[in-house]
Amino acid sequence: MSLLVIHPVFGASNKITMATTTSTENSGLLDYLLPMFERHYHIQVKVIATGTGRALKLAERGDVDIVMVHAPSKEEQFVESGYGIQRKSLMYNKFLIVGPRHNPANIAITDKIGIIFSKIASQKIPFISRADNSGTYIKEQSIWASIDLRPHGSWYKQVGQGMGKTLQITDELNAYTLVDMGTWLKLKDKTNLVSLYHNDSETITFNPYSVILINPKKHPHTHYKSAKILSNWLTSTATKKIINQYKINEQQLFFAN
């Protein structure tokens, strides 16, 4: 397996911190990728897995050296505000709707996602929202907005949890939720839930991930040089091939751009 070789940079730190989404951790992708990087470049990567919103807040404060997130509008604001530089497209997958096998909302696999949300809301069938300012929560809110609905009531449960815990709660309550494909493929066998929607033609369910460096002019104490080595490695042609090779039960979790 070939890897892009980046020669050591003078003054580079041997430890960096990356804030990223719970989906990249829950899916197992980071456990798959980062040991290769660490062995090759002798740079240890500490990972803080949280929602995209909190990851970017940590970056704004200079508490991390690099972020890997999936909320394009928030990423653009972060860069435009001068906190982030060299935003690079990394990979993508899709968002899915999962729920109980008996499918109380009578969702059809051919339904558009807006129709699915409308069916759940009109019948007041439990829906579990991450409500944690993550990329998944931001996407969920954009779908509700696209059908001019502001969900409220006891059926709409905001849990403030990561994706793995949200799936567990969804399963326990026989509810529905929105989930990224990577986390779902990794954790689905631990639940009784089933995928009830997966439409590649709907752009609203597109889930792109980016890596962004922290601007050293804003936070000179951050480890910019080492973080740049990681960013270049992640977005190299060789590593993108490795990302594409990451599969569970012969199903690909992420697709490199």
Mind explaining what this structure looks like?
This is Tungstate ABC transporter, substrate-binding protein. It comes from Bathymodiolus azoricus thioautotrophic gill symbiont. The chain is α/β, with parallel strands linked by helices and 257 residues long. The protein has two domains: 15-92 and 208-256, Periplasmic binding protein-like II (D-Maltodextrin-Binding Protein, domain 2, 3-Layer(aba) Sandwich), CATH 3.40.190.10; 93-204, 3-Layer(aba) Sandwich (D-Maltodextrin-Binding Protein, domain 2). Helix content is 37%, strand content 25%. It is built from ten helices and twelve strands. The chain has helices at 22-26, 29-41, 52-60, 72-80, 113-123, 135-146, 163-172, 181-187, 224-234, 237-245, and strands at 15-21, 44-50, 66-69, 84-99, 127-129, 156-158, 176-180, 194-197, 206-214, 247-248, 251-252, 255-256. The strands form two sheets. Strands 1, 2, 3, 4, 5, 6, 7, 8, 9 and 12 form a ten-stranded mixed sheet that branches. The chain has a two-stranded antiparallel sheet with strand order 10-11. β10 (247-248) and β11 (251-252) form a beta hairpin. The longest helix has 13 residues, at 29-41. The two termini are 19 Å apart. Mean pLDDT is 90; it is low at 1-9.
